[in-house]
Design a protein that fits this description.
110 residues, alpha/beta, 3-stranded parallel β-sheet, 3 strands, elongated
Length: 110
């Protein structure tokens, strides 16, 4: 396990950026176009509704597993970075993380 390896080497913690992108749906289905996005160019990220590549349920399971490992080491931490304009998504991370590990929330409103 990579996390245990580095903790055993003495690292104090980890920072994980863009945690909402950690897991992609196993079907690798194409993302549908976002309704009423106002974006008409399909080469732009905002054109799509990222239901298959963002905030997958398995992400929380992975974070819980990391927390269980970190709990066995004293004075270690993990910071997770979440970018999402949807407050409900951010709150889901906060509720889960409150008892799990430290989180850095960054809201990107474009």
């Amino acid at each position: 396990d990579v996390i245990r390896f580095w903790l055993d080497k003495g690292v104090d913690g980890f920072r994980v950026d863009a945690i909402q992108n950690l897991v992609e749906d196993a079907s690798f289905a194409d993302e549908p176009a976002a309704a009423n996005s106002g974006i008409t160019d399909p080469t732009l990220e905002g054109y799509y509704n990222h239901i298959y590549t963002l905030n997958q349920p398995e992400t929380m399971d992975i974070i819980r597993g990391w927390h269980e490992i970190l709990e066995t080491y004293k004075d270690r931490f993990m910071t997770l970075e979440v970018y999402d304009a949807n407050m409900k998504v951010l709150m889901n991370f906060m509720v889960m993380i409150r008892i799990q590990c430290l989180i850095f929330l960054s809201i990107s409103c474009s």
